[in-house]
Fold this protein.
Amino acid sequence: MDWQGPYIAVDWGTTNRRAWRIGADGAVADSCADDRGIRTVPEHGFAAEAEALRARLGDLPMLLGGMIGSDRGWRNVPYVPCPADARALAAGLCRIDARTAIVPGVAQPDPASPEVMRGEEVQIIGALARGALAPGALVCCPGTHAKWVRLEEGRIARFATWMTGEVFALISRHSILAPLLAGETVPGAGFAAGVEAAADGDPLGHLFALRAGALIACPRADAPGYASGLLIGAEVRAALARFGSEPPTLIGRPDLCALYAAALTQVLGPAAPSATVIDGEAAFRAGIGAIIREVA
Amino acid sequence: MDWQGPYIAVDWGTTNRRAWRIGADGAVADSCADDRGIRTVPEHGFAAEAEALRARLGDLPMLLGGMIGSDRGWRNVPYVPCPADARALAAGLCRIDARTAIVPGVAQPDPASPEVMRGEEVQIIGALARGALAPGALVCCPGTHAKWVRLEEGRIARFATWMTGEVFALISRHSILAPLLAGETVPGAGFAAGVEAAADGDPLGHLFALRAGALIACPRADAPGYASGLLIGAEVRAALARFGSEPPTLIGRPDLCALYAAALTQVLGPAAPSATVIDGEAAFRAGIGAIIREVA
């Protein structure tokens, strides 16, 4: 098994997939992104999908992370328990064949607070490898299932998940509020008002006012921003209460990270340092590289 | 227009419909219930539906309440503003013809806290007419959009809505937790654990642990009860903080009221008086009767 030289890194999620060819110099030589998430691939279709990726990006070793290692993915790869670092992830790789492997997720096997992640661990390892995280940093990875992660001695020590993104998507698509929440979500005045309203710890108690206001001719400006601010504001306050009231480093999609950064500034006050934002794709690539260095 | 003598009372909601023939003695003489909620009726189909109800229950005057008076119903009946009582609702009736009318909803036209209800006002007026509510009572009507209502001098004075039922339904049907939440929701140990966990004001921060626990072989018993307890526990605490920490009178479906009563006992402690429960259908019929007495 030869992981020296160029390789393909794949972030294969539930609904989307991104892949990069990394050259011998460690730089991105080519890439592709599509909506062939694991949900769209039939049970025995993953080998063919991987070969199609090689046909597109090069006939190279391939290391995959994300939901591709879940019970609905190519293989159900056992989780590595906390505390976890690059070496532990490398030791837990699921080898599909001599030049194809899947990174394991990380589990917090605490019966009082069970947690799992798949994908964020690669981003965090990558940010650590790039020197962008202190060994005891607090990290937040916004997304469908937002993760807040406490590092200890450069390892993923404990974490918790908020279903903020999924609940927001459900409300936006399927609830009685859906017609009001069709627009884009940006960190403006509506978002700030939602973050503020959530200070009472009752985000779901403020949602219906969006519909009532629209019905009785006092609609709220920027309803999508307000609803998003309610949910993210509640998450940020609860997570800071659980993990310590320091601004986390944000790793993820830049648009989502901008919302979280705005909420953090609002909740922690202007005197607190701003949250650092790390692009999730770059962090993922760096994490794959760090894991490959452990096995190469 | 003659509202003396027997009549038909109709509670016509978004997804369901119940109708009763009330005899000259005020007792239920006949009834029917089906899933012909307003969502299933085409825009100009309501007159024919009402005639079909008459063909089934008797050729009688008919008074309707609920979402039938909304922008998706038969007529978009203007809301009566708070404070509202039976007389105000009677004055705001929308007369379809000489023997068919729709009860208006109630609005709280406060730009800082806009609220609307359609249907619960009939139940509350009915409970008042039956002498089951003090003139300054706190009322909770559990449901898709749960209402907490403060009465003042026997009138609906102010209220607030929690989307608890709708959010629970969305999570149960569409979220990643759906396979875990398929069972019935009862007020047992799982429900109590959810109410307890929600004491930190962060119900959405505890949901994902249901999935994580199932994935790493420490599943929580009674996941539906736990999820329901999280959301209802958060609602009950927030509503008591907003409206005063006395047990409300519960008006609604007996199974839902039982969950709320259990959460209230848990949150307020065993020394607090138990919440009184009033059957929502009986309260609705009494409310229609009270409004008819105002116009007869």
In short: Residues 7-128 of chain A form a domain with the Nucleotidyltransferase; domain 5 fold (CATH 3.30.420.300).
